[in-house]
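Try it yourself: sequence plus adenosine monophosphate, in.
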Amino acid sequence: MPLRSDPNCIFCKIVEGTIPSRKVYEDDEILAFHDIAPWAPVHFLVIPKEHIPSLAHVTPEHAPLLGRIMTLAPRLAAENGAEPYPEGGFRVVVNTGEHGGQEVHHLHLHVIGGPRPWKKG
Ligand code: AMP
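Structure, out:
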């Protein structure tokens, strides 16, 4: 069954390859790529390939996918320059909706790390 996609969504276009990205990780369900405007030495996004508009849209059926995304975060953080816990570590952010500061309406996990200071946060 084809994955749900939104033709007007910038992250769906990244999934399809019509907008380029600097890939960090890819499998059948998940894509990770560097943020175009990083706040910190490490800043990449982990997204489901399926168009889920936000964390407010997830249902119990998404639990395995979200679990996979969360368990990938520490591995990809370490592979992309985040220093080890506890002296190092990283931040995971999921902006959700207008009040949550969400700008791109395709679910994404920000993974942010590396030595401080950061531009934000
Ligand atoms: P949010 O405010 O959580 O919706 O964040 C959206 C993030 O997507 C921002 O940090 C942007 O810098 C990032 N972003 C937007 N367009 C692109 C792109 N084409 N490639 C990589 N990151 C992007």
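One thing you can check immediately is this: The chain has a mean pLDDT of 97.
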